[in-house]
Design brief:
The structure holds 2 protein chains of 2 kinds. Chain A has no helices and 6 strands. By secondary structure, chain A is mainly β. Chain B is globular. Chain B has 2 helices and 10 strands. The interface between A and B is large, with 35 and 37 residues.
């Protein structure tokens, strides 16, 4: 089983995350999800160790984006 | 001392979170961008612009913003307020975008889209984020172009990739109809 690079987080606003370490993939719980709507298609993958997220990545494909309407007004209006 | 500081910060964080939740990022082309393109502040690709003495594309970047930030149509320039902290491999100001295809017309709609995905490698985000601001990094003023929102994400020791839509008059990232 391949190793996965993980980070053990200690959050609540304090930058005390531990250095990344390699851990056997079989020890991790892996989940993957997809969000697909008019605005985006997002695929996320996460790995948990003892219920805590230790690695999470996402790939967002943008769909609906910004536009402006160009207007050329008539003189005298 | 550290334990005392943690105890002290709990109520501060509690109220700050509720105050900040009043804000949200909104997807929009910034109003200032509409004005600034008429003033010739931007070159989003191409070398065929006879109006500019320095006839090269400007450099653009995408910066990521916390879900508690308030980026939107009212932005005029790149703003550090609400940007991800410069930790966990996030660099303040964000990542460069590639504009390999100059602006073009699709029937009556002008459009331009970065020609490559933008990836933040081995990122650990300082919080949940749901917006990216596109801005002109060539000028010292860093004029804002647009805000793009997506579902809130927290990234831990992994890549975050933004892939661009199809570059045409219907879905291009920036469009003027």
């Amino acid at each position: 089983m391949a190793d996965v690079l993980i980070v053990k987080l200690k959050r609540n606003g304090w930058p005390e995350d531990e250095a990344p370490v390699m851990i056997d993939q079989s020890l991790l719980e892996y989940t993957e999800g997809v969000l697909d709507n008019d605005n985006e298609r997002t695929v996320w993958r996460e790995w948990r160790l003892d219920g805590k997220i230790v690695k999470r990545g996402a790939h967002v494909t943008l769909k609906k984006n910004v536009s402006a309407q160009a207007v050329a007004a008539m003189f005298g209006k | 001392m550290k334990r005392f500081c943690r105890w002290l910060m709990v109520p501060v964080a509690f109220y700050a979170e509720r105050f900040l939740l009043l804000y949200a990022n909104t997807q929009a082309m910034t109003s200032a961008f509409k004005r600034d393109i008429l003033k010739g502040f931007h070159n989003l690709g191409g070398t065929d612009n006879p109006a500019r003495s320095l006839n090269t594309s400007d450099a653009y970047k995408l910066a990521l913003y916390l879900a508690t930030a308030s980026r939107g149509a009212g932005d005029t320039v790149y703003n550090t307020t609400g940007e991800l902290a410069a930790t966990g491999n996030y660099v303040a100001g964000g990542e460069a975008v590639t504009l390999g295809t100059p602006p073009a017309l699709d029937a009556t709609t002008a459009h331009v889209t970065p020609s490559a995905s933008v990836t933040w490698t081995a990122l650990t985000s300082s919080g949940a984020f749901d917006a990216a601001l596109l801005y002109n990094d060539s000028h010292a003023t860093k004029y804002a172009v647009s805000v793009h929102t997506f579902a809130s994400q927290s990234i831990t020791a992994a890549d975050f990739t933004l892939t661009m839509p199809t570059n045409d008059g219907t879905t291009g990232l920036i469009r003027i109809a």
